[in-house]
From TrEMBL:
This is Adenylosuccinate lyase. It catalyses: N(6)-(1,2-dicarboxyethyl)-AMP = fumarate + AMP; (2S)-2-[5-amino-1-(5-phospho-beta-D-ribosyl)imidazole-4-carboxamido]succinate = 5-amino-1-(5-phospho-beta-D-ribosyl)imidazole-4-carboxamide + fumarate. Its EC number is 4.3.2.2. Pathway: Purine metabolism; AMP biosynthesis via de novo pathway; AMP from IMP: step 2/2; Purine metabolism; IMP biosynthesis via de novo pathway; 5-amino-1-(5-phospho-D-ribosyl)imidazole-4-carboxamide from 5-amino-1-(5-phospho-D-ribosyl)imidazole-4-carboxylate: step 2/2. One of its GO terms (biological process) is 'de novo' IMP biosynthetic process. Residues 343-457 form the Adenylosuccinate lyase PurB C-terminal domain. It comes from Xylophilus rhododendri. Residues 22-324 form the Fumarate lyase N-terminal domain.
Length: 467
């Protein structure tokens, strides 16, 4: 019997070394074109074309301004860049054994049959070192990944959690500090805490300036000035870097560097994403615990199996998947942020090989955000279980009772409540007997007698709605 044929895509999925390109490939389809080798080549072509067009407008007698048709054609090479173009560049690299030079040669190959461009071909990659192209390309990759994948995913989680915070603002919840029963809160307020943290973390990610340098082999415009000594190359480079796309790069100019851009902004960005991920790890563990307590149920999906041997199980796998992948992401992000700002003298290549894993770090983050979103979408609150735990925890009212006692000068308030409640099963009548015996105003007694664990929530509901 002949073996069943296996499709190329299926074979690729099961043979991929990384689960990002195997098991989870479909979930990362929006990130892969941006952060893959193809995405890196695309941005290199963009940088080379932007520099080339800008040189034509610099006023040099040797390089006249390009015609509108030539400009449109060149920008089309960027706009229409595809996988076949990336493969063609890789084929050139097999000969050059240099990836940036392969991009230069590919661009020049596109000038054939175009005399205007062919005559100016030597201005492709003019006065540039490879790192001028690479660092700007990395900035562009991070720019689109942040705008199109990372921030939208975080925003989606924030909006889901905000809606939950408002929906469950009034649902009283037994709090736990040190794992023990504590002053009640509400479900909405606990979710609101996460929302506020995530919003602040999201703003840190969005606010980091993405930097790029275009200043030559060691950052001094040596080659540039050898060609045109009287030209303001620094101002020119700044214009290319900061002019909005498509004619410029639309990032922030880095005026001081060695051969490589210092990567401090990358460290800030990766640290900011890692801090956001840490908040989500904290939340994933909390919601896992609430599911374990029965405070939340998970909507069932036909055909899914929770355990290979225990048919009743509905495991919180989405939150477990999110937690695991957030941990992997943070391990990589932290290495990137610690390593990248360090370079021996004017340059070594350790940053180059590490930078190729930016997409992996962001990929694990994006995968985790997806899992978190799926998990949140399955949650259903179990108000009965939450109310049952509250009603079995009257000891939490020891705090308001002794606080009111202190207000009216009752001596030993804390100690009296400790004697009645610590380490004991507290019944409503135990507390009510104590309250009736207190020498405090009758109105205060009535207020305390009317209090229940579910009503003792302070400003939790108001704070939840404000998030």
């Amino acid at each position: 019997m002949s073996p069943t044929p296996v499709s190329a895509s299926a074979a690729s999925a099961v043979s991929a070394l990384s689960p990002l390109d195997g098991r989870y490939a479909g979930r990362l389809s929006s990130l892969r074109p941006l952060m893959s080798e193809q995405g890196f080549m695309h941005r290199r072509v963009q940088v080379e074309i932007a520099w080339f067009i800008a040189l034509s407008d610099a006023g040099f007698a040797e390089f006249k301004p390009l015609s509108p048709g030539a400009r449109t054609y060149l920008l089309g090479l960027v706009k229409n860049f595809c996988e076949a173009d990336a493969v063609a560049i890789k084929d050139i690299e097999k000969v050059t054994n240099h990836d940036v030079k392969a991009v230069e040669y590919w661009i020049k190959s596109k000038f054939e049959a175009r005399p205007e461009l062919l005559a100016a071909a030597e201005f492709v990659h003019f006065a540039c070192t490879s790192e001028d192209i690479n660092n700007t390309s990395h900035a562009l990759q991070l720019k689109v990944a942040r705008e199109q994948v990372i921030l939208p995913a975080i925003d989606g989680i924030v909006e889901t959690l905000r809606a939950m915070a408002h929906q469950y603002a009034d649902v009283a919840l037994l709090a736990r500090t040190h794992g023990q029963t504590a002053s009640p809160t509400t479900v909405g307020k606990e979710i609101a805490n996460v929302v506020v943290r995530l919003v602040a973390a999201r703003e840190r990610i969005a606010g980091i300036k993405l930097m790029a340098k275009m200043n030559g082999a060691v950052g001094n415009y040596n080659a540039h000035l050898s060609a045109w000594p009287d030209f303001d190359w620094e101002a020119f480079s700044r214009r290319v870097v900061e002019t909005p796309e498509p004619l410029g790069l639309g990032v922030t100019f880095q005026p001081y560097s060695i051969q490589i851009e210092p990567h401090d902004y990358m460290a800030e960005l990766f640290d900011a994403i890692a801090r956001t991920n840490t908040i989500l790890i904290d939340w994933a563990r909390d919601i896992w615990g609430y599911i374990s307590l029965g405070y939340f149920k998970q909507r069932l999906k036909a055909g899914e199996i929770g355990s290979s041997t225990m048919p009743h199980k509905v495991n919180p796998i989405d939150f477990e998947n999110a937690e695991g992948n957030l941990g992997l992401a943070n391990a990589l992000l932290r290495h990137l942020s610690e390593k990248l700002p360090i370079s021996r003298w004017q340059r070594d290549l350790t940053d180059s090989t590490v930078l190729r894993n930016m997409g992996v770090a962001l990929g694990y983050s994006a995968l985790a955000y997806h899992s978190m979103g799926v998990g949140l979408g399955k949650l259903e609150i179990n108000k009965e279980a939450i109310a049952e735990d509250l009603d079995a925890s009257w000891e939490v009212l020891a705090e308001p009772i002794q606080t009111v006692m202190r207000r009216y000068g009752v001596q030993g308030a804390y100690e009296k409540l400790k004697e009645v409640t610590r380490g004991k099963t507290v019944r409503p009548e135990d507390l009510h007997g104590l309250i009736r015996s207190l020498e405090i105003p009758e109105a205060e007694k009535e207020r305390l007698l009317a209090m229940t664990p579910a009503s003792y929530i302070g400003k939790a509901a108001e704070l939840a709605r404000r998030a």
